[in-house]
């Protein structure tokens, strides 16, 4: 076992026989900064932590796979079980690599999964190439001129600017990108002031971007920048963008995807014949 990669990452190794192949199984473990009120038996017991994206399920799946494989030992080679932290922050995998994950635990191939609401129980989805979207987190800081709400003519209202930027960003998908290329641009947070009678001089906007094509991703990132800056300038304000973090499109290797599909069919056939 190895603890501490990317802070809280854990890697375990199972070795059976003398096979030369080394595979990796990866699951992410993370939570959203929310209070869980689902009332389920498996609800989070930690205040302010909610497994809203099902990462507790990912961790459970890999733990059970580890237990099963250690108990049955029906393979010949080396298997690394990789528990990756900070998936929601988009940098856990990158930091594990920077901390030497594959230097310490080299893998010929690595496999992972993500739960998918709506997918039938017992079924898995497979696809060659782009399988899951890229994910980028951006902050836009709008700087205006604050003042009293009774004299708006002496101010540059950063809140109004942020609202116009938000609306303008919605045109990227409909007017800059082909309808055949899936893209999502979401402004998830606009933080501005506290008092009802004060015009804010500063607003912080937080965005997420998802795409399935790296070229489209770069185009949208540039458009977000250009639109935010131009909208702010039209109001005599400024907009400063920060690319907080990002992860590329997840692309499946076609050969390994076919291998997974083959084994899935074999397992299904065995299950039917055992009934």
Would you kindly provide a written description of the structure presented here, covering whatever features stand out?
The chain is α+β, with helices and mostly antiparallel strands and 275 residues long. The protein is 32% helix and 30% strand. It has a 5-stranded mixed beta sheet, with helices on both faces. The model has no long low-confidence stretch (mean pLDDT 92). It is elongated. The protein is built from 7 helices and 13 strands. Helix 4 (158-169) packs antiparallel against helix 6 (214-234).
Give the secondary structure arrangement, pairings included.
Layout: E1 2-5, E2 9-16, E3 22-29, H1 55-72, E4 77-85, H2 92-98, H3 101-104, E5 109-112, E6 129-132, E7 134-143, E8 147-148, H4 158-169, H5 171-175, E9 183-191, E10 198-199, E11 202-211, H6 214-234, E12 238-247, E13 250-252, H7 254-273
Parallel strand pairs: 3-4, 3-5
Antiparallel strand pairs: 1-2, 2-4, 6-13, 7-11, 7-12, 8-10, 9-11
Helix pairs in contact: 4-6
Defining key terms:
single chain, 275 residues, alpha+beta, five-stranded mixed beta sheet, 13 strands, 30% strand
